[in-house]
C-alpha cells in the first residue's frame, strides 16, 4: 500500500538515478568546499517544477535573502518535472550544475559519490541540530561518511477507505484495519462478498511496502540488497493470495498512483493511500465518496510510517560556497519551512516545527484532522526507500513482483531474481 507521491505536489515527480559516468569521478574526499567567509556573490538556485504554483513565494524569499546579505544575487532556475534527473545528469557531466539544487535522496547519491555534493557534516555541521534527526539522515549515503543535502519539506499520509463499501461487505466501517493481517483479511472478505467486483487494494507492493512490513532492505554496508528474506517472501505470498482472490485490483500490475486514485474515486477500490490534498479532490470530484470517506493510519509493522523527503544540495564545486550554504540553509530554516507549509499540504523537517498549533490543534475539519495526524507520525517517520535504490531497480522489482502474482515464478524465486538484478545495478553504480 504505497503512499502516493502526489502528496508532494508536482515536485515529487518520479526520478531516475544518475549514472556515475556522467558525473566525473570523486568519493569520500570530495564535497568539502570551504563554506567559511563572507556571504557574497552571484549564485544559481534550481527547483523542481515549483514556479507555476509558488512563483511569488520564491521571489519573495530570494528578495529577503538578498536584502539580508547585501552583495548577493540569486538567479532562480525552475526545471520541469519531466526529465529532471536527466537535466541534472547533463549539468553534472558538463560542469554546469547550479550552486544550489532541489533534490531527492536518490538524486543525491550519485552526485555525492562523484564528489559533486557538498558534505554538510563538514561544511555546515552547526545547522544539524535545527532538523529532525530522521530528516537529516535521509541524505546520507550507505558506505560513505557525511550528509549531502539540507532536508527540506516532508510528507506522509493516511489510508483512506470507503465506508459504504465496507458496510456493504459486512465489515465494520467504524473499525478499519490497523495491521497487515487485518487489511489482508478484510480484503479477502470484500472480494468474496462482492464476487470479486470490488478490490480493496490497487497497487502491488513496492520497496517502501517491504520496509514498512519490517523487511531488512539492505545490508548495513550498503553493498547488497536483502529484501528476499523470509519476511519479504511472506509479504509477497500474501499479495499473491489477494491477487488470486481479486482482492487486489487486476490492473495493479500496471497501476500508477493516479490510476489507483481514479479507481478509488469511482468505487472500484475500497482503500487507497493519500494526503490532506486529496480531501479537496474528493469533495469536488466525488461528493458521494467524500460523505462516506474513512480515514485511518498508514499500516506499518515497525511502528514508523513512511515519509517522503525533499532536500536542498550545495554543489561542492561552487565558487561561492559561503553564499550557497547560507542560501540553502535559509530556504530550509524553520521560519521559511513553516511559511511554505502553510501554502501547500507539506510538512517542515525542522526540529520543533511540528509542535506548532498549526500541526497540533484540530478544528473539526477532515483536512485539519489529516494534517494533525500526519504531523504527529512524522516525528519518528522513516524514508524506507533506500537512497541507493534507483529507478531501474524499482522497475526490476516491479517486474519480478508481477511474475510472482501471475504465478510465473514463486514469491521466493521472484525476490531472489529481483535482489540479484538490483545488486548488479548497484555494482554498476560504483
Summarize the structure in words.
The protein has 430 residues and is of the alpha/beta class. Helices cover 43% and strands 10% of the residues. The chain has 18 helices and 8 strands. The protein has helices at 51-68, 84-94, 105-113, 120-123, 133-137, 163-168, 180-193, 207-212, 230-244, 257-265, 276-285, 287-291, 321-332, 334-341, 357-360, 366-378, 391-405, 411-429, and strands at residues 41-48, 72-79, 100-103, 150-155, 159-162, 271-273, 293-296, 308-314. Helix 1 (51-68) links the parallel strand 1 (41-48) and strand 2 (72-79). Mean pLDDT is 89; it is low at 1-30.
CATH topology of the largest domain: D-Maltodextrin-Binding Protein, domain 2
Helix content: 40-55%
CATH class membership of the largest domain: Alpha Beta
| Major sheet details | 5 strands, mixed
**Which CATH architecture of the largest domain?**
3-Layer(aba) Sandwich
- What is the string of helix and strand elements? EHEHEHHHEEHHHHHEHHEEHHHHHH
What's the overall geometry? globular
Rg from alpha-carbon coordinates: 22 Å
User: Biggest sheet, strands in spatial order?
Assistant: 2-1-3-8-4
Summarize model confidence as the mean pLDDT.
89
What is the number of strand segments? Answer: 8
CATH superfamily of the largest domain: Periplasmic binding protein-like II
Structural class: alpha/beta
- Quickly count the domains: 2
End-to-end span in angstroms? 31 Å
- The unreliable regions are 1-30
Classify the beta-strand content into a percent band.
5-15%
Count the helices. How many?
18
Keywords: Cell membrane, Lipoprotein, Membrane, Palmitate, Signal
InterPro entries: Bact_solute-bd_prot1, SBP
Pfam families: SBP_bac_1 (PF01547)
Protein name: ABC transporter substrate-binding protein
Amino acid at each position: 500500500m504505497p503512499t502516493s507521491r502526489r502528496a508532494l505536489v508536482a515536485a515529487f515527480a518520479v526520478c531516475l538515478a544518475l549514472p556515475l559516468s556522467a558525473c566525473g569521478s570523486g568519493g569520500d574526499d570530495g564535497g568539502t568546499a570551504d563554506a567559511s567567509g563572507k556571504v557574497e556573490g552571484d549564485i544559481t538556485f534550481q527547483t523542481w517544477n515549483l514556479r507555476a504554483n509558488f512563483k511569488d513565494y520564491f521571489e519573495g524569499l530570494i528578495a529577503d535573502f538578498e536584502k539580508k546579505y547585501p552583495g548577493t544575487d540569486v538567479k532562480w532556475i525552475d526545471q520541469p518535472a519531466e526529465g529532471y534527473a536527466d537535466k541534472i545528469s547533463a549539468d553534472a557531466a558538463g560542469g554546469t550544475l547550479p550552486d544550489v539544487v532541489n533534490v531527492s535522496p536518490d538524486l543525491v547519491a550519485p552526485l555525492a559519490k562523484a564528489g559533486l555534493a557538498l558534505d554538510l557534516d563538514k561544511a555546515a555541521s552547526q545547522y544539524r541540530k535545527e532538523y529532525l534527526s530522521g530528516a537529516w539522515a535521509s541524505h546520507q549515503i550507505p558506505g560513505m561518511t557525511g550528509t549531502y543535502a539540507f532536508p527540506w519539506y516532508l510528507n506522509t499520509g493516511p489510508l483512506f477507505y470507503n465506508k459504504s463499501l465496507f458496510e456493504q461487505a459486512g465489515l465494520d466501517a467504524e473499525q478499519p484495519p490497523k495491521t497487515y493481517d487485518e487489511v489482508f483479511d478484510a480484503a479477502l472478505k470484500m472480494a468474496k462478498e462482492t464476487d470479486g467486483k470490488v478490490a480493496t487494494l490497487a497497487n502491488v507492493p513496492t520497496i517502501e511496502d517491504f520496509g514498512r512490513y519490517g523487511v531488512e532492505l539492505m545490508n548495513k554496508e550498503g553493498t547488497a540488497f536483502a529484501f528476499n528474506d523470509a519476511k519479504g517472501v511472506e509479504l509477497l505470498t500474501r499479495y499473491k493470495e489477494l491477487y488470486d482472490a481479486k482482492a487486489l485490483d487486476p490492473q495493479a500490475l500496471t497501476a500508477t498512483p493516479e490510476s489507483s486514485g481514479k479507481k478509488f474515486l469511482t468505487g472500484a477500490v475500497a482503500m487507497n493511500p493519500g494526503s490532506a490534498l486529496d480531501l479537496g479532490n474528493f469533495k469536488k470530484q466525488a461528493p458521494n465518496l467524500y460523505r462516506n470517506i474513512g480515514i485511518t493510519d498508514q499500516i506499518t509493522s515497525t511502528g514508523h510510517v513512511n515519509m517522503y523527503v525533499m532536500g536542498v544540495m550545495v554543489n561542492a564545486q561552487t565558487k561561492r560556497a559561503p553564499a550557497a550554504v547560507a542560501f540553502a540553509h535559509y530556504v530550509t530554516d524553520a521560519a521559511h519551512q513553516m511559511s511554505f507549509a502553510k501554502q501547500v499540504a507539506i510538512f517542515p523537517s525542522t526540529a520543533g516545527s511540528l509542535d506548532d498549533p498549526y500541526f497540533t490543534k484540530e478544528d473539526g475539519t477532515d483536512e485539519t484532522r489529516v494534517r494533525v495526524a500526519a504531523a504527529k507520525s512524522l516525528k519518528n517517520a522513516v524514508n524506507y526507500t533506500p537512497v541507493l535504490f534507483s529507478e531501474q531497480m524499482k522497475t526490476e522489482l516491479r517486474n519480478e513482483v508481477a511474475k510472482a502474482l501471475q504465478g510465473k515464478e514463486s514469491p521466493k524465486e521472484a525476490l531472489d531474481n529481483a535482489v540479484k538484478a538490483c545488486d548488479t545495478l548497484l555494482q554498476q553504480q560504483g
